[in-house]
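dumping the sequnces here before i forget
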Amino acid sequence: MLIPANALIDAPDSALGKFSQAAVAVLLFVAVVSLILFIASRFSGHRGDRATAFAFLGPTVLLVSVGLIYPGLRTIFVSFFDAAGKKFIGLDNYHLIFTNSDELTVLRNTVLWVVVTPLVATAVGLVYAVLIDNTRFESFAKALIFLPMAISFVGASIIWKFVYEFRPHQGSIQQIGLLNQIVVWAGGEPQQWLLNEPWNTLFLLFVLIWIQAGFAMTILSASIKAIPEDIIEAATLDGASRLKMFRYVTVPSIRPSIVVVLTTISIAALKVFDIVATMTGGRFNTSVVAKEFYSQTFSADNQGLGAALAVLLFVLVIPIVVYNIRQLRASEAR
Amino acid sequence: MTTTTPPTVSAPPPPGVVSTSARTVRKRLSNPFASIAAIVIAILWTAPTFGLAITSLRPQNDIRKTGWWTFFSDPTATLDNYRTVLSSEGSAGLGSFFINSFVIVIPSVIIPICLAALAAYAFAWIEFPGRNILFVAVFALQIVPIQVTLLPLLKLYVSAGVAGSFWTVWLSHTTFALPLAIFLLHNFMREIPRELLEAARVDGAGHVTIFFRVLLPLLTPALAAFGIFQFLWVWNDLLVALTFVGSTDTVAPLTVALFNLSGTRGTAWYLLSAGAFVSIVIPLVVFLSLQRYFVRGLLAGGLKG
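..and the predicted 3d for all of it:
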């Protein structure tokens, strides 16, 4: 019995073996679910309702309890312990986060990410959506901005790291990064964009702006098209200029969508890990809470501090999500 | 992932659908400043990707010496970078990681969708005690950042003896997807007229029959929409893979391989550019070919929450 169990768990070396393992996983899953469904269908009436509900929800409740609730509670618990997770130290980990200078830099960077990214991404998305609204090449223009959404954060980081690439400015050495080449063309000195703080964080977070502007544009463009026509006509008849129209008609009409977009992007910015990890690895004072959590937990082996950072992330997300949901409710109720 | 997703907001209209107000206000882009602003944004948003694409096609030596824009005055193209990157041999080969990404993504999309469909059905159409409390609980779990779960989950996998295997990523992605998937599919299920289900009940159909015969066909757009979402999320994920299978080359996906490559050979742009493009191609194809479906599905569910 031992050998087949191992074959099911250990990753095979060949592609065929790997795909067969995936197929086995799916089939196993289908078999379990079918069995549950079969048993549930044997019951009838009120008891049948309960049995079916139990069968339909069983796997979900089990997975969510073991995979989300237990680990979440466990992490909160561990955040009150020392690096090895052995000794109870109360709130010391949290105290450290708010006093240690390295951790304060991490917090400052996170604030930059959470404030700047949503504002700029939403502004770009909104302006672009208004500019291309009802033009001949609207869907093509939208696709250009929208495509980064399908690219992984790692891929996007590599794309932008290449833009920021630096070569020393001497002799016949040519720049290969676009940004530095533009600087050189303009007569300036090439810069190490990712090295000098605190500006390097701005260059990092621009990658997320680049990804999220498409999301903002899509959502806002849809709401712009949903503005009732009579409002636009009335404003046009009153002789409103384009700027006035934007300021007094478009923006107020889509305000709920703008708020939802802003909050959604700020949550993404709060949890950002991939971009920082890929572009600088958190060095040069660019780390953020989610990256610092990873470093403390898995590289520095400081379980307690890592857990405290994860809990901090959790605590910071809650008010934004609650606000987001309320705005959503409000916009639906209208 | 939960909140970086657009589905609950009013969704974009399908491409090609021109709103009725189009003609009345079509005088817009006549303003030259507006045109210039739009073009500048469009260039800023496409040039970086375009530059890397050109780079991936240039010989290794050219990449090191000159910028990609010189390609237009001195075009020499090669597929060598892709050949190096796609082979499974050598330290730079990403071929096996490409396969790993597929092996990870398939069960990680199918399993949560099926489980979520069953759960959403139970929440929407079966009366049982504690239904509302349980639904609110699952809904609320959407806000849990996955960071909070990683270390305890890793320890669970170690004690279960599955650490470093595909099972860890399959199970993790399934679990993390469930709250949002249930929430979305539940919204879709509520849209289906009660009469339809009651008629089936009168005909003597049980829940299992109703689920498969009546609901599943109606839900296809919703399932497809969430499927694409989950596909993109899992394919592009770094954090989950890095945590659970980051050090196992036979399991790690493309994102982890690229991440490592960027860390250890950060200046080897001939590898990074081609590697990045290999990882971008699949989600891009999925996204573009199924965009219509995706958008239509979201529209139906997003209009009413």
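Chain A has a mean pLDDT of 88.
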